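ok here's Propionyl-CoA carboxylase beta chain, seq below lol
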Amino acid sequence: MSKQTEKIKALVEKRELARLGGGQKTIDKQHERGKYTARERIEMLVDKGSFEEYDMFKLHRCHNFGMEKKQYLGDGVVAGSATIDGRLVYLYAQDFTVNGGSLSETMAQKICKVMDMAMTNGAPVICMNDSGGARIQEGISALAGYGEIFERNILASGVIPQISSILGPCAGGAVYSPALTDFIIMKEQTSYMFLTGPKVVKTVTGEDIDAEHLGGASVHASKSGVTSFTAKTEEEAMELIKQLLSYIPSNNREEAPRVECTDPIDRKEDLLNEIIPDDPNQAYDMYKVIQAVTDNGEFFEVQPKFAKNIITGFARFNGQSVGIVANQPSAYAGVLDTNASRKGARFVRFCDAFNIPIVSLVDVPGFLPGTGQEYNAVILHGAQLLYAYGEATVPKITITLRKSYGGSHIVMGCKQLRSDLNFAWPSAEIAVMGASGAVAVLCGREAKEVKEQGGDVKQFLAEKEEEYSEKFANPYQAAQFGYIDDVIEPRNTRFRICRGLAQLAHKKQDLPAKKHGCMPM
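and the structure came out like this:
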């Protein structure tokens, strides 16, 4: 055997050893927990045979607390590039079989390398988290590694899409990297995210709680809004990533992938002519409207379990990817609150950063009143949504279906926030407030006089409400001032959106020169 052949054989053996991570026993334990290994996850996600790994032979340099005896090729993270549906992506997967996936200085260097490559080449970066946190034996060097990763998350924000999947533990400072990315997917039952674990919580606050209820997938999907999606299995998590990527571009200089449309753009939906109830206080399901107007009724919802009074997600019109923001009358009457405002604002800003047009479907009675909202800064959160719409320079089409009252009318993509096309259904009510509230303010003194004179106050108020409704419970006054571009027949909504997007295909709009704005936080 020649020396060259021996060296090649040694290389093959080293590669096989690196692929074993922490060894077969730790791989078996990972499988017993119902979890895949880092490499299995990557192979599950990317196109077959496309993964190219970097730094497979990297080793940590720590000699504290016996770490020199715990050397594994690759040092706890598998990183590289691949393609998904033919598109270039960069990705890394933490390997829990190697020192519990704990982050070391060299592991951080591997992660930073692929993030830098993703930025240089304008490709999405995907991270798969399954780690016990910072490698305590390395002290400040591990913390410095996190800092390097966070800085790259910040610099990449709005330049390339960043997607995090939480497939195991993610605690302490480690949670900030996913929090800085655009979308988070959490695997149910096996993943959790929190700054301080159950033991620390109990010691400090006396609260007795387990990891699932402190920071599990269901908590962050429905209560905190930290995660964008949850998945019952790791296979489902990978499919969600693929589906998400199909709607978004690879970087902020490109457009989202366009697909062939088999759904006629002039398809009329008679259902929409009947969907608005005669009773203004009766709910209806906004999902039915979305399904009626999008290509083939398809809709990929983002944060479906959080702030259900507002709907955000991706759809297509004539094959073009579009972000949809819609009030949901069947959840708290579609009212805006702190959670709905920040959910909507975050989504609008993502769409604007990555050249994705925004279609808003409006039926909003106002902001939720009460001390709970005021104390939780509904003013600031509402301003975030307003700021996001006003700052966005992508094509914006707003359709008012029914109610659009007061400040909530403004923040939902009104003409004054530079919406390009504003349409309204004949059922639209655009006013400062609803008829009953307005009459109570405008005619309070007169109602009191009617009561003192022994008249029928209810009849008087009903007449005044009817008068107010005739003036304001329709879209025509707004149309008179040019705040509505057209009043449209509901069943033609799909066609008007498709044609509007075609008109706005080459829209160019710039913001005033500045370093950055100071968005209310």
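fwiw The chain has 21 helices and 17 strands. kinda neat tbh
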